[in-house]
Amino acid sequence: MIKILIRAFLVISTSVLLVSCGGSPSGQAPSGNVAPPPPPPPPTPTNYNTVEFRNNYGLDQLKALAAYDAGATGQGITVAVIDSGIDIDNSQIQANIHPDSTNIATGNKADLDDLDGHGTGVSGVIAAIRNPSDRSNVNTHGVAFNAQIMALNAASPGSCETTDGCTFSDPHIAQALDYARVRGVKIVNISLGGDGFNSTVLVDSYRRAVNAGMVIILAAGNRDPGDTDLVLSQPENSASVAWAPWANGQIIVAGAVDQSSTISTNSHKAGTLAKDVFLVAAGVDVPSLGLPDPDTGNERFFLWSGTSFAAPHIAGAAALLFEAFPNLTGPEVADLLFTTATDLGAVGSDVIYGRGLINLEEAFKPQGTSSIAVKTAAGSSAIVGFAGSALLGGEAFGGFAGLTAGMENSLLLDGYNRSFRVDLGQRVFGQGQAVRLDNLIGSRRGSRSSSLKLGLSAQVNLSWREDWRFQEVEENYFSNQNTAKNRARDLRMKLDLTLNANQSMTFAQGLSIKEALEDYNQDEFLTIGREDFLALVGRKNSQSAVFGQKLSGRTKLGLVMSHGTAQWQQYRLKSNSYVMMARLDHRLTRSVALGVDLGVMDEKGSILGSLSSGAVSLGRGATTTFVNGRFGWAMAGGMNFFARASYGLTNVAAAELSLVEKIGNLRSGSFSIGLTGDSLLQKGDRLSFAVSQPLRVSGGYANISYVAARNYQTNNLSFVSNQVSLTPGGREIDFELAYRMADIFGARVELNVLHQVNPGHNRANRDNTGVLIRLGSEF
């Protein structure tokens, strides 16, 4: 039967002797190398939130579940505990006692056994075994319950059997540090303390441990009889090595907090000297192991208090980090514990809580500047920034379903070069609504035009547009910034120059290619004419030049050069698109007209309108060769039939560093058919109906290469390649009915009814129906 024992420890303090830095037990009974990212979880994940976990509030306080759920348990990590030894027969920790455990003072392993209980209690906080089947209210497991404890009994021989309790000399502690160091131990817990300063022998051993990359946790010290608040305002002198410049932050001083995360009244505090190397953890009524009942031999749990039991919580946390991320060095583990701690007390490092409370949940998240591992053309690995990795998908690709699925298991490296799995598909964004009503509704707003005849055969037609909708807001609230650059207006212009009866030139600024080639005013449809390759060159900072040549009375040739830009300010992405095209229009009869465009579009920084960068970059740019076809038939009774189709082949210039190694065989196209009728219901009206498919990728693939595994020992990254389809899963089909009423007292009324199937070529999108009524008047 497990019982609780109440005992008291005396504190001895001299310049050469140290005592256990934990308070007395009181009251009644109450992560081998795992290479993250962890393997896929089993069908039934392990439940670590058990009774024995909850029995020690300190485990939940430092958010240990986050580490356990990530697969870290302390397996393969050894923690040296320099203390009074360990109960070698205790079933709750016997399996986790390292075979190199020994008695440093006597040099005899047979003297390892703990005669005091303090060392056993400290070791239990670190690595008491996990036994979820035991649901009693007294047992608990250690922070790193699969870690090994190298118990180093450094107590002066015979001291633990005296009424004054165990004492520890500097030479023995120094010898224990060296013993652990030469055996490759990474973590040392020293829950001892005293008012005297460390001897040169001990300081030198600390130096050697720091230089070897070890992390050392020291107890800050407890209130002694007669101690004032001033004495408790900083750690005991035995911890002074922690803030020495050479300690490099690898010596951590541990203070104790209670269940409410409030500093214990018996704990020494950080003070001005130790506040940058001071952390806190549970140290009031912490359940852990102790010595068996001397009468019955039954094992017992105790409630321990003191900074001696805050320190092993931190040591256990360090063990979990070392296991989960084998690449970490001692300085990096210490820095992670400091930088991810929950800030308590005054903001930042303060004189009470120092850096704050251990927080494993944050420590197991990516920290610092993150990057993505990608494969170079030469087959080696390189990293690109995570923050700048994003893709703004063009509408032709739909939702990039295949691409996003191929990127959902990418490898992210944080600022400590730790590996995490990340779904880079979350960095793929859509361009929003398929129909941009602001461009359509405002197509005629503020339009102005003027003509100037230069001679018998030359004439200049000038049209422009200014948008002053925000002038009042600007003048009232931003008058101090009312410069030409900041004026809230949208200036667009078009210059038509008739050279002679057969030749013409058109220059346009701020207009789409369609607007430059045809009548400036948009037609009555919301969707038709905005679905092909020419629509990829928008109005933004666009310039166009068109040369027209009549070849005959029925045939006209047009040569087009155009440039436009697109921007994604959030990620500072910009693209430039250049189009060179020949347009041929031929009238077969008075009622039938044919047209064909042959062109090349060169994109710098985009792929069919998709802007991307970093690890999800589709490529540096693309060259698309396209053909557009048009057919028009003027039927009797004011009816007109039209049909349009486009098809293009795109060659993508591969990105230098991206998960997307190559895009190939990219094909895309669009179509529209419709009818228009003039003066059908009343004179001057127009009724129109059309069915269209916006530009859609009809074929193509992307080769994606990502890291499948990482060997932490060799830092080797194993890449695998997958080929994914770029064809959207859905197909957007737009049905549109448009009606324009004749002018009524100078007012114009237009009605559009639009129904979209699979908007954005995304099968997951619900069908969309909209009604638009436009009222306008010219004056």
UniProtKB/TrEMBL annotation:
GO molecular function terms attached to this record: serine-type endopeptidase activity
In this chain the Peptidase S8/S53 domain maps to 74-356
InterPro entries found in the cross-reference section: Peptidase_S8/S53_dom, Peptidase_S8/S53_dom_sf, Peptidase_S8_Asp-AS, Peptidase_S8_His-AS, Peptidase_S8_Ser-AS, Peptidase_S8_subtilisin-like, Peptidase_S8_subtilisin-rel, Peptidases_S8_Autotransporter
Could you tell me the keywords of this UniProt record? Hydrolase, Protease, Serine protease, Signal
Q: Where is this region: Disordered?
A: 26-47
Q: Which residues form a coiled coil?
A: none
Pro residues: compositionally biased ranges:
35-45
In terms of PROSITE patterns, this protein maps to: PROKAR_LIPOPROTEIN, SUBTILASE, SUBTILASE_ASP, SUBTILASE_HIS, SUBTILASE_SER
Q: Which CDD domains match?
A: Peptidases_S8_Autotransporter_serine_protease_like
The record's Gene Ontology biological-process terms are: proteolysis
Family listed: Belongs to the peptidase S8 family.
Q: What is this protein called?
A: Peptidase S8/S53 domain-containing protein
Q: Which organism is it from?
A: hydrothermal vent metagenome
